[in-house]
Amino acid sequence: MKYTEAWASVSSQNSILKGAIVSLSLVTVVLALVTIKTSFEEPVVIERGCFTTLANKINSKHTLPEITQFLKMSLSQRFDFDVQPVDHIVAFDELALRNSEQKELQSRNIFQRVIINGVEETPEGFKVDTDRIISVGDIRSAFRFTLIVKIESVSRSLSNPYGLILTSTKI
User: Which positions ≥6 away from 26 have C-beta within 8 Å?
Assistant: First the structure.
């Protein structure tokens, strides 16, 4: 092999390797930028079930309609006499208060139910306008019952699909 042919071969390989390094560097920069961009997006939630539907991409923050639905369920578990409370929805302190109230009301043969009329967000928590229906035998009375409710965010699960827990209720 001649010296000029060997030098031409080395020069050709060097130019190919330089081109490969430049292209791989560009691909690395592009992939890094795409990774950074997607890391700031909201997470994708995939719901599994026995039916096929298109899952809509939603914000992971809790909306007021979702909080209202949660409060209807959780306040029912907190105050209604015929509902069995779930500890993943209502905090343990509130369940203890519920049990003591229910024992006192049952000893007097009084039953209660709470109907939610509206929910409003305040700096202290959520102001919930409710009607408290109390029945003694066949006699029923409805009273206005305004509550200040505090909730906390927890991770979503099958037992708690809202990802919220009722921590405090004050009149």
Answer: none
